């Protein structure tokens, strides 16, 4: 075996509360496409941030061509020939292609401070031709499509003499034809001896262009192998690889009650295509899928936050008009992904937040009664076990788990019977997580229905009675409780790449 | 073409028809002269707005530097010395704005509202609110001169425009102005000291405030502490109407000229029609909204 072009050895990195990377090692050779796979939160992105100098590892070393090097800053990484193309591009929209490729490294013109534009365009054209691209380098990048912007990013990396190129889910936002084009370019780069680290969720790609595969799980190496030595089944198992804790629910729902939510043939402006789903009283139903599969879009459309173009949404047989006010009136509660900006008024008290959605229901005659409001809030605090010294405390000062409970309390007070939880336990510690799950359970015990969106497969498996799986903005399957495993969800969510 | 281009044509036609004397050469030159000071402020304001910023202090800084320029002249110094002092005062305010916004992280609105108050207060204190007169003959004579038949102020404004155009589109600094507003992170990752360039954008605005004092004082034949009060409003309106966006780092310098001319035509035409100056302010607000409305409607259609 030859010396790897770049080697990362025993990299560890911790953040307050989590050990993001534990002793991770990765070696890439020139002319190799190295696929890095793993679930959300497996540590792929953190590893790449360490590699490009954005994070400093707590431990570990880098070797370039077998000799140790230091990467303390993004400049170091650039100097050593490491370039990372993140999903969020580092392009300036109103500069042209050439200006973007050479940003910060402009060719000086004759007068001090000026730029030799002609030379920049000539050089930029040369690099793009090398990639087999024929773009007008005078085009401003905001006029380019995502795929073309990606080419500009690649050209920018090559112009810095990158020897190691990292691509973070490069096919997430481009069409099939453009993917073919990208793969051609990757083949070309590989022939030129460039090492490529390619992060992907799409299994087809892993086998189509990967020369080697490394699997990360929970911040640690699980396995490295050649594509020919493995199968999709084995990869999925390696990515998941743990027993599931299912103790959160008292019992799963075996006999659901009346239909609460019914969605028929829903198409939305945000791209959801033909969604059909039914939720009955007593059920917790999951909405699974990879990032960008359309989970949040579907949930927002049900809540009326985004417009629908076709189809109907019924709550307890009443047709919803498609705006949030109407949804709330009919009893839908949305526990949003970002509770701090979308779910709470952070500076206001627990009292104010809990009453925010239910005032119209509590006081139909429009006269506000402070004693009645106070009683209602006290009851909610007790029911939800919110840990706060007083109802007057600003929610900003509460822990994440208690903030989440306030959001739930707000909807309980509004009389919601159908709850949408979008990533309900993000940024919440383990103890509070269990409490949130128990809360969901008690909601459905009382005859409500709950829809849970989550990127954490163990969470879905632990709490859901059923799950719908989305891919490319459409529901591609449904898993009953007995089939609800991380493997099955992943397989459905990733098939056909 | 931004919507303001259509507005400019429409206004010009309307005033030519309804305001007698509007479409005469002397009046058109007059519009140019009146617009030149505004252009000197609107050009650096374009850079600032491109970087997602704002400079509310420009009118006040212009007022203060005007008073300073006049006072130094009254004290008997030459024009070069007086202008140097005025430029220094303007530059100092610009750098202060830049440091407050970039290094100390104050919102531009707050930082420059503060320096607006400071500049205006100093100007009023220096003069007790009265005009500084007796600036001698040199500046007025210079201001009244013509170059190849072109009034001094129009010639100066044209020259300054050429300079800014060159700066934005042909220099490293210009590239970085686009980058600060468009993707500051990318600029920092490219190893460019983005903060220094960002401060420089504000410094340039202060400097131009000092330079515009030359034209203002020349035109008024005196220094007056509140002569330029509220001019930043016209400048911001002209820049935004001209198609520069507060997000994404999208700036278009020729658009700023169109915006400035439109404000100039509007003020002049309304003057000819004898409309009160308070209502003129209102019509500039209306102009800004109309111009942006045209843009947004056209965007929606395409």
Molecular structure report:
- The complex is a heterodimer of chains A (497) and B (302).
- Chain A has 497 residues and is of the alpha/beta class.
- Chain A folds into two domains: 235 residues, P-loop containing nucleotide triphosphate hydrolases (Rossmann fold, 3-Layer(aba) Sandwich), CATH 3.40.50.300; 236 residues, P-loop containing nucleotide triphosphate hydrolases (Rossmann fold, 3-Layer(aba) Sandwich), CATH 3.40.50.
- Helix content of chain A is 34%, strand content 24%.
- In chain A, α15 packs parallel to α16.
- With 302 residues, chain B is mainly alpha-helical.
- Chain B has a single domain, classed as ABC transporter involved in vitamin B12 uptake, BtuC (Orthogonal Bundle), CATH 1.10.3470.
- In chain B, 76% of the residues lie in helices and 1% in strands.
- Chain B has twelve helices and two strands.
- Chain B has a two-stranded antiparallel sheet with strand order 1-2.
- The mean pLDDT of chain B is 92.
- At the A-B interface, α2 of A face α8 of B.
The CATH class assignment of chain B is: Mainly Alpha
Task: Please identify the structural class of chain A as seen in this structure.
Answer: alpha/beta
Order of helices and strands of chain B: HHHHHHEEHHHHHH
Helical content of chain A, roughly?
Answer: 25-40%
Kindly provide the radius of gyration of chain A, computed on alpha-carbon positions and rounded to a whole number of angstroms: 26 Å
Count of individual beta strands of chain A: 20
Number of strands of chain B: 2
- How many helices of chain A? The count is 18
The name CATH uses for the topology of the largest domain in chain A is: Rossmann fold
Specify the CATH homologous superfamily of the largest domain in chain A.
P-loop containing nucleotide triphosphate hydrolases
Uncertain parts of chain A: none
Strand content of chain A: 15-25%
CATH architecture of the largest domain in chain A: 3-Layer(aba) Sandwich
């Amino acid at each position: 075996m030859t010396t790897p072009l770049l080697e990362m050895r025993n990299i560890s990195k911790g953040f307050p509360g989590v050990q993001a990377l534990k002793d991770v090692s990765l070696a890439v050779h020139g002319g190799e496409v190295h696929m890095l796979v793993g679930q959300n939160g497996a540590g792929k992105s953190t590893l790449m941030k360490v590699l490009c100098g954005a994070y400093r590892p707590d431990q570990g070393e880098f070797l370039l061509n077998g000799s140790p090097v230091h990467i303390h800053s993004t400049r170091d990484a650039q100097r050593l020939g490491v370039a990372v193309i993140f999903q969020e591009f580092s392009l300036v929209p109103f500069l042209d292609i050439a200006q973007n490729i050479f940003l910060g490294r402009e060719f000086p013109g004759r007068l001090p401070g000026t730029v030799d534009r002609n030379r920049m365009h000539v050089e930029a054209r040369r690099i793009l031709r090398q990639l087999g691209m024929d773009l007008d380098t005078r085009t401003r990048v905001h006029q380019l499509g995502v795929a073309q912007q990606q080419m500009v990013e690649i050209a920018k990396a090559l112009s810095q003499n990158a020897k190691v190129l990292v691509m973070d889910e490069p096919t997430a936002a481009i069409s099939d034809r453009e993917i073919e084009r990208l793969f051609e370019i990757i083949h070309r780069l590989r022939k030129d001896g460039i090492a490529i680290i390619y992060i992907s969720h799409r299994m087809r790609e892993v086998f189509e262009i990967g020369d080697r595969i490394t699997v990360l799980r929970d911040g640690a190496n699980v396995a490295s192998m050649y594509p020919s030595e493995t199968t999709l089944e084995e990869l999925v198992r390696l990515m998941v690889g743990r027993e599931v804790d299912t103790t959160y629910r008292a019992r799963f729902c075996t006999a659901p009650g009346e239909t609460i939510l019914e969605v028929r043939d829903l198409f939305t402006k945000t791209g959801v295509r033909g969604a059909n789903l039914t939720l009955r009283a007593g059920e917790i139903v999951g909405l699974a899928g990879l990032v960008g599969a359309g989970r949040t879009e579907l949930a927002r459309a049900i809540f009326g936050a985004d417009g629908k173009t076709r189809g109907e949404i019924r709550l307890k047989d009443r047709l919803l008009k498609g705006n949030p006010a109407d949804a709330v009136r009919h009893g839908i509660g949305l526990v949003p992904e970002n509770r701090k900006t979308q779910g709470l008024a952070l500076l206001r008290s627990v009292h104010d937040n809990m009453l925010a959605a239910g005032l119209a229901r509590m006081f139909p005659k429009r006269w506000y009664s402070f004693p009645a409001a106070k009683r209602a809030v006290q009851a909610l605090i007790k029911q939800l076990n919110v840990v706060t010294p007083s109802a007057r405390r600003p929610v900003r000062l509460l822990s994440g788990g208690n903030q989440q409970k306030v959001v739930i309390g707000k909807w309980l007070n509004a009389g919601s019977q159908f709850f949408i939880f979008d990533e309900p336990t993000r940024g919440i510690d383990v103890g509070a997580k269990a409490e949130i799950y128990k809360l969901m359970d008690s909601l459905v015990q009382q005859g409500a229905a709950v829809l849970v969106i989550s990127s954490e497969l163990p969470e879905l498996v632990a709490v859901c009675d059923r799950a719908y799986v989305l891919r490319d903005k459409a529901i591609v399957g449904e898993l009953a409780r007995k089939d609800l495993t991380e493997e099955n969800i992943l397989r459905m969510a990733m098939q056909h790449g | 073409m931004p919507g303001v281009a259509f507005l400019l044509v429409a206004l010009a036609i309307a005033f030519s028809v309804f305001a007698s004397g509007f479409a005469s050469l002397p009046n058109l030159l007059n519009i140019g002269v009146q617009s030149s000071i505004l252009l000197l402020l609107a050009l650096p304001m374009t850079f600032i707005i491109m970087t997602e910023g704002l400079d509310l202090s420009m009118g006040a800084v212009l007022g203060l530097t005007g008073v300073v320029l006049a006072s130094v002249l009254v004290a008997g110094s030459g024009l070069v010395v007086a202008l140097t002092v005025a430029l220094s005062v303007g530059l100092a305010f610009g750098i202060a704005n830049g440091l407050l916004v970039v290094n100390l992280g104050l919102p531009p609105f707050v930082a420059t509202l503060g320096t607006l108050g400071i500049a205006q207060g100093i100007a009023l204190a220096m003069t007790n609110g009265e005009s500084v007169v007796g600036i001698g003959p040199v500046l007025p004579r210079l201001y009244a001169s013509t170059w190849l038949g072109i009034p001094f102020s129009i010639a100066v404004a044209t020259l300054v425009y050429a300079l800014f155009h060159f700066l934005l589109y042909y220099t490293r600094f210009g590239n970085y102005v686009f980058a600060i507003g468009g993707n500051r992170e990318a600029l920092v990752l490219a190893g460019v000291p983005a903060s220094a360039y960002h401060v420089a954008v504000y410094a340039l605005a202060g400097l131009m405030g000092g330079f515009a004092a030359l034209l203002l004082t020349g035109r008024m034949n005196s220094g007056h502490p509140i002569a330029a009060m509220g001019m930043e409003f016209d400048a911001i309106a002209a820049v935004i109407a001209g198609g520069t966006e507060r997000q994404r780092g999208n700036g278009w310098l020729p658009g700023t000229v169109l915006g400035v001319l439109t404000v100039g035509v509007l003020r002049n035409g309304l003057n000819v029609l004898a409309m009160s100056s308070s209502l003129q302010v209102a019509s500039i607000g209306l102009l800004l909204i109309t111009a942006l409305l045209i843009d947004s409607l056209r965007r929606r259609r395409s």
